[in-house]
Specification:
A hairpin with a 5-residue loop joins strand 1 (about 130-135) and strand 2. Strands 2-1-3-4-5 form a 5-stranded mixed beta sheet, sandwiched between helices. Helix 2 packs across helix 3 (about 45-55) and helix 6 packs antiparallel against helix 7 (about 110-120). It is built from 9 helices and 5 strands; from the N terminus they run αααααααββαβαββ. About 45% of the residues lie in helices and about 15% in strands. The chain has about 230 residues and is of the alpha+beta class. The chain starts with 15 loop residues before the first helix and ends in a 7-residue tail after the last strand.
């Protein structure tokens, strides 16, 4: 006969919520934090044990867990759609917070800075997205904006909307960023055409196109670094 695994029967110090109240969030393990998000386990498995099982499947890597879709998370026994949505939403909040903290202090000095800023948003998605970074005279990022979402191989970009966005935020510099889900970061002919068209149009508005960075999960390509901007 299987013994009850209800967390309420545990010592108070071993319950994730109570442990956070008594000892603070830094004293919780990854599994305990995920258990709080999940909320409850099942009759035969505590939320902590369920969290451990989920984390083990991703080698205890939060980034890998964040890549799982609602459908994939729901395949874990004990995780229904509602719990899966809670997990996805919580991890997305974490990513947005990290992005905001980075933006508040980020001055772009290289293509690597751009890659580090955008990799969290673009590395783990199966389709192309096109983003624009707007900079002030000190090369500090003042705004980021997702301009379009496409398919596996391409996305449509409206140059007029990009420049309108730049003017609205009084930006003096623009950096284009998009991803290649295939992992091949070499620019396509269409990538080159869009870059040149935007560069020509931006000059007329006294806005400088500083770079166009193509990212994948493990590497990136910079138009500026390659001298083709």
């Amino acid at each position: 006969m299987i013994e009850s695994q209800n967390i309420k029967s545990w010592a108070e110090d071993d319950r994730p919520r109570e442990k956070m109240l008594l000892k603070g969030k830094k004293n919780l393990s990854d599994a305990e934090l995920l258990a709080i998000i999940i909320g409850s386990g099942s009759r035969n498995e505590t939320a902590v044990d369920l969290a451990k099982r989920m984390l083990k499947s991703t080698n205890n890597n939060w980034n890998a867990l964040a890549k799982l879709s609602i459908k994939e998370l729901s395949k874990f026994k004990g995780i229904g759609e509602a719990k899966a949505i809670s997990i996805v939403a919580t991890l997305e909040v974490g990513q947005r917070r990290a992005l905001q903290e980075t933006q508040e202090k980020l001055v772009i000095t290289s293509s690597e800075d751009v890659y580090n800023l955008m990799i969290g948003d673009l590395a783990d998605i199966p389709h192309e997205e096109f983003w624009v970074l707007l900079l002030n005279r000190a090369n500090k990022v003042i705004h980021t904006n997702q301009m379009s979402i496409g398919g596996i191989h391409e996305t449509v970009v409206d140059i007029r909307l990009i420049l309108k966005n730049a003017l609205e935020h009084l930006a003096v510099g623009i950096i284009l960023v998009h991803n290649h889900p295939s992992g091949n970061t070499q620019p396509s002919e269409q990538d080159k055409i869009i870059t040149q068209k935007l560069n020509n149009a931006a000059v007329l508005l006294e806005i400088k196109l500083l770079d166009h960075v193509i990212v994948s999960e493990k590497k990136y390509f910079s138009f500026a670094d390659e001298g083709i901007l």
